[in-house]
Structure formats: C-alpha cells, structure tokens
Amino acid sequence: MESAEKRILVLHGPNLNLLGSREPAVYGSTTLQEINASLQQRAASLGVAVDCFQSNYEGALIERIQQAPGVYAAILINPAALTHYSYALRDALAAAALPVLEVHLSNIFSREPFRHHSVISPLARGVICGLGPEGYLLGLEALVKILQQEEKKRLSSMHVRQQA
Ligand code: DQA
Question: Closest residue (by CA) to atom 12 of ligand 1?
Fold first, then answer.
C-alpha cells in the first residue's frame, strides 16, 4: 500500500502536553508544539508525513495504535510514565506489528530506579533517551532508514522470486 509506506504516527504519553513548563530542569524548555513542528519539518525533508497525537489517557493512545495498521508505516512513541508499567500499551504495539521507535527526553537510566525498566523496549526497533527534543528527530530518521531498508529487502526478494 503506497500511503502506508509514507506516514509515521508520533505518539506522546501522559503529561507531555506540559513540556516547556513541566520540571524544566529534567525536560528542558521546549514545548510539545515546538517538538511537533520540528518533527513536521524534518519529516518533510525526509519525504515522509507525520501525524502527532498526545494523550493523558492510556486508552486513547491504544485506540490510535489499533487504528494504525494500513494507515501508518511505523510508530515513534514517547510513552512517558506508561513506559514503565503499561502492558496494555505494549500489547497494542505488539498487535499493530509496525516498526516502533521508543524515545525519552531524559536519560531514564540516570533517574529513579522505577524508570530503569521499560515494558515497551523489548518490542522497539531501537530506543533513544537522554538527548532531549533532538531524540525525536533522530528517532524519526532511524525509522525512515529502517523503512527504506525493509523496502529494499522486499524489492530484492521479489526480484529473486521472479528470477526463480
Ligand atoms: C519520559 C521519562 C518517563 O520516565 C516519564 O514518566 C515521562 C517522560 C521522558 O521523555 O524522559 O513522562 O518518557
């Protein structure tokens, strides 16, 4: 499906709507709107589209993930606190079976012990943390590269099958 190869869903979990004013010593002063705008800009330069969605509700994020297959090619997610305990979010991502890139603004490993574990990471293609808003852009670039590599593999296996 042509369009499913070009759209990336960006999900932000609980409390990330407060970025800019929330614990600036930890999360910096960049707002979520600014992060989303820079993602839109980078996406355009990479030749993909992004749709950004934030919710403080686990169920709302899960519903967006359930609707993603066939519409989006990959998911870039900062699950926020849900990272550490939401098996429901984890299961939704597993069911969607799309490439997932997990991002955190802060270095979760240098913080409280409860933040050291992610129930999402085992099914993520990669995890970026501690790089602030730049992490989202690097995550987007990584996902685009992953999609390009998968497309290349798909085309070359089609080619091999046609030759056989
Ligand atoms: C966070 C880290 C989480 O531990 C925390 O609950 C958040 C934000 C980050 O981006 O650093 O809300 O995901």
Answer: 80
Architecture of domain 4-163: 3-Layer(aba) Sandwich (3.40)
Catalytic choice (12, 27, 72, 136): 27
Residue type, 161: R
Alpha-carbon distance of 8 to 42, in angstroms, equals 12
pLDDT at 98: 98
What's the mean pLDDT in 15-37? 96
pLDDT for position 131: 98
- 9: three-class secondary structure by DSSP: strand
Residues 92/59, Cβ–Cβ less than 8 Å: no
Cβ atoms of 103 and 19 within 8 Å: the answer is: no
Query: Structural domain boundaries of the chain?
Result: 4-163
pLDDT classification of 1: cutoffs 50, 70, 90: very low
Instruction: Return the ligand 1 atom nearest residue 26 CA.
Output: 11
From the list 12, 72, 104, 136, the catalytic residue is 104
Strand partners, 69: 72
Is the Cα dihedral 70, 72, 73, 76 positive or negative? negative
Q: Where are the alpha helices (DSSP H) in 67-133?
A: 87-96
